[in-house]
Specification:
The chain is α+β, with helices and mostly antiparallel strands. The protein contains three helices and 15 strands. Strand 2 and strand 3 form a beta hairpin.
Length: 209
């Protein structure tokens, strides 16, 4: 069930939904408008030529911060990570869905590629996956309306909220964060190493004299 403006206000009061800072004028019938922060991450294509999901990509990206009266220019076909200005969070019985503003989409800007979901229990400044699908460069400004978030109530409170304890990767982010996909391969490597250790334990190694 998607929450109405009335219910969003109610759960903002109880603290089960968090939008900080919150301004009531940005409340829509079933969502809240969110704005663009001034921090971005872009791939350094001069130094790197291929992305390997098995390896960390943090060093492949560089941070760009615009002035409060400046603009970030996203060229046709380019991709960048951006950031929502507001901190957004939900309790263990709600989830959030981030969507682009219609007016932004009509300029040719996609605000996320796949990751528009706010997990139960998480509170953060959400990272945007910005992509210019138009034929012209587009200027993106600090605090411009960029997205809207709707909230849904779960059928019951989740028993495993999004957290570091369950191995979640993007808990409490306050800056755009590069992909942590490589962490998904780490348990596999650990299992492989454990198997090798078990195999080696079956052999007697005689130290050199």
């Amino acid at each position: 069930m998607i929450l109405s403006d009335k219910d969003i206000l109610k759960y903002l009061e109880t603290g089960e939904i968090e939008i900080s800072p919150f301004d009531k004028k940005y409340l829509q019938p079933a969502s809240i408008d969110l704005h663009l922060d001034k921090h971005f991450l872009v791939f350094d294509t001069q130094k790197h030529h291929v992305i390997d999901p098995k390896l960390p990509v943090d060093d492949m990206m560089r941070e760009v911060t615009i002035n409060e009266d400046g603009a970030f220019i996203l060229h046709p076909g380019e991709f960048a990570l951006g950031l929502i200005y507001e901190k957004t969070g939900v309790s263990n019985r709600f989830a959030g869905r981030l969507e682009g503003k219609s007016s932004v989409g009509r300029l040719g800007v996609l605000i996320h590629v796949t990751a528009g979901f706010l997990d139960p229990g998480n509170s953060l400044q959400m990272t945007l996956e910005l992509h210019n699908v138009s034929n012209l460069p587009i200027k993106l400004y600090y605090k411009m309306p960029i997205a809207q978030i709707a909230f849904e109530e779960l059928s019951s409170e989740c028993i495993k909220p999004y957290s570091k304890e369950m191995g979640s990767k993007y808990v409490g982010d306050t800056k755009p964060r590069a992909s942590q996909m490589w962490r998904n391969f780490r348990p596999i490597k650990q299992k492989e190493n454990l198997t090798k250790e078990n195999e080696n334990s079956n052999h007697i190694i005689i130290p050199k004299s």
